[in-house]
Amino acid sequence: MSDRIIPLARLWIVALALTLLSGCSPGNQQAALEAAVQQLQDNLEAKRSSAVVEQLHPEFRAQQQYDSQWAKRTMLGLFLRFNNVKVIALSKSSTLDPTSTTKGYTEAQVAVTGAEGLIPDSANAYSVKLEWWLEGSEWKLARIDWK
């Protein structure tokens, strides 16, 4: 993987993790969204790339250009490089779209660390925006952007 892809991978993982940290009736939909965000973070930290891919909407896009295959390749490269991956949400907020019952959003400030052992070899902070689409009864990550 190129040096450019690794930082993008970390950002993508951080954004996904933050989304999982946030989270029927509007109250139940909000709780389901927050549970999806937490599940995403758990899957990333457990290095379960197939479970993360299952949480992606079929029309998933990262940074308005990368698809789910890119996400899968990026995660695999990151997980091979680092034994331990942590996503730390410094702040997060998830909301339901007031004009649509099938969209939700998560904004977060996250730190992503990667380590060969116990001490992180790499740490980066990101501002992440996630857009979730309700498909059936499950929230699927459709869009993710980060700075």
What does the model show?
It is a single chain. With 147 residues, this protein is of the alpha+beta class. It has a single domain (5-146), classed as Roll (Nuclear Transport Factor 2, Chain: A). The protein has four helices and five strands. Strands 1-5-4-3-2 form a five-stranded mixed beta sheet. The protein is globular, with a radius of gyration of 14 Å. The two termini are 20 Å apart. The model is unreliable at 18-24 (pLDDT under 50).
Secondary structure elements and their pairing?
Blueprint: H1 5-21, H2 26-45, H3 49-54, E1 56-62, H4 68-81, E2 84-96, E3 103-115, E4 122-135, E5 138-146
Helix pairs in contact: 1-2, 1-4
Any guess at the CATH architecture?
A: Roll
Name the average pLDDT: 85
Strand order of the largest sheet: 1-5-4-3-2
List segments where confidence is low: pLDDT < 50 over at least 5 consecutive residues.
18-24
Distance between the termini: 20 Å
Beta-strand percentage? 35-45%
CA-based gyration radius? 14 Å
Structural class comes to alpha+beta
What is the succession of H and E elements? HHHEHEEEE
Report the principal-axis shape: globular
- The beta-strand count equals 5
Helical proportion, percent range: 25-40%
- Characterize the largest beta sheet: strand count, sense, and whether it forms a barrel: 5 strands, mixed
Helix count, DSSP H or I runs of 4 or more residues: 4
| CATH level-3 fold name | Nuclear Transport Factor 2, Chain: A
